[in-house]
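Regression check, magnesium ion case 267:
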Amino acid sequence: MESYRVEPGHEVRLAESDPRDSTAFDGDKTAGKARTKELNRRLEALQEVLYAEGKHKVLVVLQAMDTGGKDGTIRHVFDGTNPQGVKVASFKKPTPEELAHDYLWRVHAHTPARGEITIFNRSHYEDVLVVRVHDLVPPDVWGRRYEHINAFEKTLADEGTTIIKFFLHISKAEQAARLQARLDTPHKQWKFSTGDLTERALWDDYMAAYGAALAQTSTPWAPWYVVPADRKWYRNLVISQALVDLLESLDMRYPEPEESLDTVVIT
Ligand code: AMP
Ligand code: MG
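Current build output:
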């Protein structure tokens, strides 16, 4: 999984990273899915001890183009975890109140508390992505934000938050197929937005914006992973493995029981 990690300070050429890659499982979907199931159970157990210990805070950032699989990732990768300790924060077009503040204001409020995993479904990165692509603020304004973001995430990390960030990398052709499926499938039509076509037309600008963001904000304290995401099973596998590795590295323990438990008699 480490091969998908963006090394701090390295250039990111998304055009050269294959969204259909499945090297770690050699294209073997059946074996890959079985492995993901095992990882699901492992993640479930790790999340329980994270919650019980109430010490670590874990932030998972998901970014992708429309149809990239953020919702599917949340459904599949976190399957079986306890909703009491796992939160999702979805960041949409900012409200007037949010726009009246700095762009990190709405984000900070949703960062995880001790014992929690919080998943950002989109994030503060939109403020250097959609905002950059659509010139919603001048270049000198969004240009400063990479540095803010690194400092913000460093603050969270210094104060005990473990951060991991995933860019779900789909191809433009795969997006076409998924948009078409949304059009053609009655129970998926609610997800179709004509606005997605406007964004799709700006694909190259988005890839440039993503490339810059990934290169400038993959840090030792908040690394980015570029996840091949054309194959959903492989996407789930890569993210599950990366999360299990991360949580295992935290060396978590259940809290010690009160001392004299063996003398307790329940009447
Ligand atoms: P969805 O994730 O499909 O529900 O769409 C949410 C929409 O909100 C996307 O089109 C995002 O680009 C947009 N969005 C999220 N954050 C921002 C932001 N800070 N500024 C402008 N648009 C945003
Ligand atoms: Mg959408």
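Comparison notes: The pocket of adenosine monophosphate (ligand 1) is lined by residues 66, 91-94, 122, 126-127, 130-131 (CB under 6 Å). The first strand starts at residue 57 and ends at 64. No diff flagged against the previous build.
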